[in-house]
Amino acid sequence: QEQMDLQMQVAEEAKKQKMKQLPQVLWIFDDLVDDERVMHSNSNLIATLAIRSRHFGGNLWVSTQKFRALANIIRINLTSLFVWPAMSNRLERKAIIEEISGHYSPDQIEELLQHVSKRKHGFLFVKLKATDPSEMFQDSLVQRIRVTKKDGNALGDAAQQHGPARADAVRDNR
């Protein structure tokens, strides 16, 4: 709470001085799933940060192995997800797939997870607030993945050709 209050004061001072950008801070919370006060409550410090921190230059990273343990208010305010597909818990995998499958089917999201798992230490980056659904997914922050609905596959033809020295996604050179 003390750090959040300090950042709010810094942001207010920056606004008074008419700074174009607020000084930024990053709060990182790692694996607090066992702390009921933090993860399961909609009225705790992490929930407050999830809702309000962007207004005063705050950024929040929450790392968890149990996605469903995050309070709803935290999940609603997420802007991005990093998803490692090696999840062995089928219920957790299903929860994440359900969370990000608004524009695409659960089968397409599963295909994306299978796709990024072919890269050593690969993960799926999901930009939840993307205004264009085709901008939503990246393979390990290396290449954008464009989802197509051709032949029932989630990925375009270029993404289906895998080679050890190249990325396993459709390259977007914009």
State the gist of this model.
This protein is 33% helix and 15% strand.
Could you characterize the architecture of this molecule?
- The protein is α+β, with helices and mostly antiparallel strands and 174 residues long.
- 33% of the residues lie in helices and 15% in strands.
- The chain is built from 7 helices and 6 strands, in the order αβααβαβααβββα.
- The strands form 2 sheets. The protein has a 4-stranded antiparallel beta sheet. Strands 1-2 form a two-stranded parallel sheet.
- The longest helix is centred in the N-terminal third of the chain and has 15 residues, at 2-16.
Helix-strand layout with pairing:
Layout: H1 2-16, E1 25-30, H2 36-39, H3 45-52, E2 58-63, H4 72-76, E3 80-83, H5 90-100, H6 106-116, E4 124-127, E5 137-139, E6 143-145, H7 157-160
Parallel strand pairs: 1-2
Antiparallel strand pairs: 3-4, 4-5, 5-6
Going by helix content, strand content and strand pairing, the class is alpha+beta
Q: State the low-pLDDT regions, or none.
A: 157-174
In total, how many beta strands? Answer: 6
Count of helical segments? 7
Could you tell me the mean pLDDT? 82
List the secondary-structure elements in sequence, H or E.
Answer: HEHHEHEHHEEEH
Q: Helicity, in percent? A: 25-40%
Strand order of the largest sheet: 3-4-5-6
Keywords:
7 helices, 4-stranded antiparallel beta sheet, 174 residues, alpha+beta
